[in-house]
Structures are given as C-alpha cells and as structure tokens.
C-alpha cells in the first residue's frame, strides 16, 4: 500500500467484500460471522489501518451532552444564533443536551464539570486555542469552518462554506444586472476577524483581479466599548462613519456595495436612499439578515442557511462518535433569499 491513510475502502477491495460489511466487522455491528470478523481485523492490521481519530478518542462512557463554542466577538450576529439553534435542534434529535461554552480563551481552561461526548468549534482560527484545549482533554471535535492545515489532524471532520463560489456567484448576478462595474466590499473592523470574513475578502480580491477591475474595500470602525454591547453589535458602528461611507460611495453612480456584515446592508440602503439624488446603489448582503436585509427586495441577500449549518455539524459529530470511518468533510450549500 502507499503511504496514504488506509481506509475501509482499501480493506473491502482487498477482501472483495462491501464497505458496510467491513465497517460492521470492525465496530461489532450487524450480522457478521466470527470468521469474517476475524479476517477483516487481520487484514486491517496487515494493511496498517488506523481507526478514525475521533473514534480513538471516544470514551467508553457516554454522557449525552455535546459542547459548542462560538467566538465572543460575533455572537450578536443572528447568523451565529441561528447556527446555535441548528446545533440545539439536531442535538435534541439524537437525544443529547447542549453545553454552550461562553468563556474558553487563552487564559482559561475548558471546564469539564459537565462532561461532554464531543465538541463543535465554530469559526476556528489558525492555531486555535479552543481546538488545543478540547483535544488535550481527548474530546472529539467537529468544526464549523475549515481548521488550519496545522490543526486539521486534530479534528474529526468539518463543515464549511465555499466562499470563493459564493463571491463568484454574487459577481455573476451583478453582471446579469449590469451593476458590477465598480464593486466595493464593505466590512466592519472587528477586533478579531472571523476566518469566513477573511475568505470573503480574499475571494473578492481574486474576482477583481481576474476581471481587471479596481479592488476597493472599506472598513468601518467600531465605537469604543460601552461595557454592554457585544463587539459585533450593530450599535457599535459609528453613525458618522456610516454617513461618511454613504456620501463617499454615493458619488459613484456605477458602484455596487457588497456588505459583508449581517444586518448592515438595510441600514446603508436606507441612508443611501435618503441622500441619493438618483437611483440608489445595488447592495448585496453577505450574509443577509433574515429580519431586515432579506425583507427588502432591493437587496440581494445571501442565505448562509445557518440553522442547517449547525445541524450538519452535529450530524458529523454523531457519525464520529459512532466510529464511522467514512466520515467526510462537507461543503455547506448556500442560497439567495430572492432570485
């Protein structure tokens, strides 16, 4: 065999039997004769098969609880709340409770006062301390968002969005409406930029280069911490900065604004409508807020389908905990709130 990781597909091919039979034999499931079970295990050992990392880490006891951690700086965005609801609903379906970790940082340790079977880490950062802490505690992990290459081996599976495809589709739709002559990316200067937002920035820059058009990005500052608002709360965005942005971008009648901050697109459109002498710019929300952006037909809103995003992570974790060696990373499908 080659140096790549041996899978149950290799064992099945070697023995001329089905993958499901191999999986059942390795994990003591289904109706498998003792002779076949022993043959499968001997072949697995001979080929150098190593079981799924998450299955290796799985404790013999089950606690019926799944952990979830979301970066504190973005919890005010409804996308993350909908993701959490998706995780919660999916946990309920598999008979597990949900433990939400609100204080997992470099200065604190993961509290295991409430033991968990596995954990879901949302928005993993490069060299993410949360991944380090959970894996040190031998807790199987699934991430919402791609982990870094350095930490990929610590994670059983991940579910992520192909933001290159999302941004390319946004440009295509703007092309169809002849409104992408001067696209501008609008982001908020958060203390810690989520990895998905960095991927949107990279995809935007790549699309601009490939099309030979100027790459323009505007970052909106946040107000000083008032002690109450979340770092990502829309209330923390300077009103004067919003008006200055609208005044600046409004001078370009051919511009379209791609707003990579949930709930901000409708505010910008309202300000642009108040001040524009002609047709307001085309505005795209990535992602769109279902309670504001998505309700305005003038805004092209990307739907991250956050509830399903969270539910998929639970499904992957459930497979890992069951010792499923066919578990795969998944690409989450997005859509648009309106055609």
Automatic annotation (TrEMBL):
This is DNA-binding LacI/PurR family transcriptional regulator. Pfam families: LacI (PF00356). CDD domains: HTH_LacI (cd01392). Signal peptide: none annotated. Keywords: DNA-binding, Transcription, Transcription regulation. The keyword Ribosomal protein does not apply. One of its GO terms (molecular function) is transcription cis-regulatory region binding. It comes from the Bacteria. InterPro entries: HTH_LacI (IPR000843), Lambda_DNA-bd_dom_sf (IPR010982), Peripla_BP_I (IPR028082). Residues 6-60 form the HTH lacI-type domain.
């Amino acid at each position: 065999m080659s140096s790549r990781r041996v899978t149950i597909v290799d064992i099945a091919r070697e023995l001329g039997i089905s993958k499901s039979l191999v999986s059942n034999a390795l994990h003591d499931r289904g109706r498998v004769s003792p002779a076949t079970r022993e043959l499968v295990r001997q072949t697995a050992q001979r080929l150098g098969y190593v079981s799924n990392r998450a299955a290796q880490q799985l404790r013999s006891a089950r606690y019926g609880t799944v952990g979830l951690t979301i970066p504190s700086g973005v919890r005010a965005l409804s996308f993350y709340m909908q993701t959490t609801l998706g995780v919660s609903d999916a946990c309920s379906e598999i008979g597990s409770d949900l433990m939400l970790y609100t204080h997992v940082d470099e200065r604190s340790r993961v509290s295991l006062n409430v033991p968990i079977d596995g954990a879901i880490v949302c928005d993993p950062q490069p060299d993410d301390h949360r991944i380090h802490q959970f894996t040190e505690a031998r807790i199987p992990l699934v991430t919402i968002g791609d982990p870094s290459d350095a930490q990929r081996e610590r994670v059983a599976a991940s579910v992520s969005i192909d933001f290159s495809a999302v941004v390319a589709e946004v440009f295509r739709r703007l092309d169809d409406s002849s409104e992408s002559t001067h696209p501008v990316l609008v982001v908020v200067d958060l203390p810690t930029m989520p990895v998905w937002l960095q991927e949107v920035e990279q995809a935007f820059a790549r699309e601009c280069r490939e099309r030979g058009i100027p790459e323009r990005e505007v970052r909106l500052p946040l107000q000083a911490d008032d002690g109450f608002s979340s770092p990502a709360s829309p209330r923390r965005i300077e009103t004067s900065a919003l008006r200055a942005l609208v005044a600046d971008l409004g001078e370009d009648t051919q511009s379209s604004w791609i707003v990579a901050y949930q709930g901000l697109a409708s505010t910008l459109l309202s300000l642009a409508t108040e001040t524009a002498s002609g047709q307001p710019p085309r505005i795209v929300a990535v992602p769109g807020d279902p309670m504001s952006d998505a309700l305005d037909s003038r805004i092209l809103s990307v739907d991250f389908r956050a509830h399903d995003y969270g539910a998929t992570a639970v499904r992957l974790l459930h497979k890992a905990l069951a010792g499923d060696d066919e578990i795969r990373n998944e690409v989450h499908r997005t859509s648009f709130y309106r055609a």
